[in-house]
Write a structure and sequence with these properties.
Shape of chain A: globular
Largest interface: A-B, 23 and 22 residues
Number of strands of chain A: 11
Radius of gyration of chain B: 13 Å
Radius of gyration of chain A: 13 Å
Order of helices and strands of chain B: EEEEEEEEEEE
Oligomer: heterodimer
Number of strands of chain B: 11
Order of helices and strands of chain A: EEEEEEEEEEE
Strand content of chain B: over 45%
Helix content of chain A: under 10%
Helix content of chain B: under 10%
Strand content of chain A: over 45%
Largest sheet of chain B: 6 strands, mixed
Chain lengths: 115, 113
C-alpha cells in the first residue's frame, strides 16, 4: 500500500484565495483525521470522519474551514477565504476499523503558505 | 477534556547517550499512550505504545514507562544514534470511538555525532 496520500505537498497562495487540500486514506481504513501543525500550537485535530461521516469538527477554527469526505477513498479540506494565520502544515491521517488501540497512519503533509 | 504536557521541548545529547522524554496527562480514564516520531518533512509515525494494564514496554533501544497513579509516562531511548534525531510526540487517549489521541506539544531530539 502506498500509505496516506496528500496533495499538493506545498501550496503558496495569497490572502483571500480559496485553498483545497486533498487526501487519499489507506484502503480499508474507516477513520480519517485532519490535523494542523504549527510551532505555536503544536499538532491540532481539526476534524475526523468515520465511514465518511463527520464525527467531531470542534477543532475547526472557524467557518472559513470546511471538510468533506464524499467517499471512502477521498477527502478535502477547504479554506475560503485564506488568511496568513492559516499558514501551517496540514496532515491527513487514517486508522483501520474496529474499536481499540488503533494506530494513526499519517500522510506526508501539505505545507501551506498564505501571503 | 484531556490535557497532555510534554517536557522538554528540546533535548540535545551526544551519540551513545540516553534520552528521556516525559509526559503527564490529566484524564484518569485515559488508558492508551502512543508515542510518535516525526522526521523532517514527514508525518508522525507510531514507534511504540503502552496500555494502562502494563507498567513498562521495551522494543530494542526504546522503552516506555507508565505511572497511572501519578498520571505520567516516559519515553527512554538508549544508545542514541544520529538517526534518532526527530520530533517525538506523546499522546493519551481514552476508550471510545477510535481512541482519538490528545497529543503533547512535541520534543525536538538532536543527537550529535
Amino acid at each position: 500500500d502506498a500509505g496516506v496520500i496528500q496533495s499538493p505537498r506545498h501550496e503558496v497562495t495569497e490572502m483571500g484565495q480559496e485553498v483545497t487540500l486533498r487526501c487519499k486514506p489507506i484502503s480499508g481504513h474507516d477513520y480519517l483525521f485532519w490535523y494542523r501543525q504549527t510551532m505555536m500550537r503544536g499538532l491540532e485535530l481539526l476534524i475526523y470522519f468515520n465511514n465518511n461521516v463527520p464525527i467531531d469538527d470542534s477543532g475547526m477554527p472557524e467557518d472559513r474551514f470546511s471538510a468533506k469526505m464524499p467517499n471512502a477513498s477521498f477527502s478535502t479540506l477547504k479554506i475560503q477565504p485564506s488568511e496568513p494565520r492559516d499558514s501551517a502544515v496540514y496532515f491527513c491521517a487514517s486508522s483501520p476499523p474496529g474499536l481499540g488501540y488503533n494506530e494513526q497512519f499519517f500522510g506526508p503533509g501539505t505545507r501551506l503558505t498564505v501571503l | 477534556g484531556e490535557n497532555v504536557e510534554q517536557h522538554p521541548s528540546t533535548l540535545s545529547v551526544q551519540e551513545g547517550d540516553s534520552a528521556v522524554i516525559k509526559c503527564t496527562y490529566s484524564d484518569s480514564a485515559s488508558n492508551y499512550f502512543p508515542w510518535y516520531k516525526q522526521e523532517l518533512g514527514k508525518g508522525p509515525q507510531l514507534i511504540i505504545d503502552i496500555r494502562s494494564n502494563v507498567g513498562e514496554k521495551k522494543d530494542q533501544r526504546i522503552a516506555v514507562t507508565l505511572n497511572k497513579t501519578a498520571k505520567h509516562f516516559s519515553l527512554h531511548i538508549t544508545e542514541t544514534q544520529p538517526e534518532d534525531s526527530a520530533v517525538y510526540f506523546c499522546a493519551a487517549s481514552r476508550p471510545g470511538g477510535s481512541y482519538i489521541p490528545t497529543f503533547g506539544r512535541g520534543t525536538s531530539l538532536i543527537v550529535h555525532p
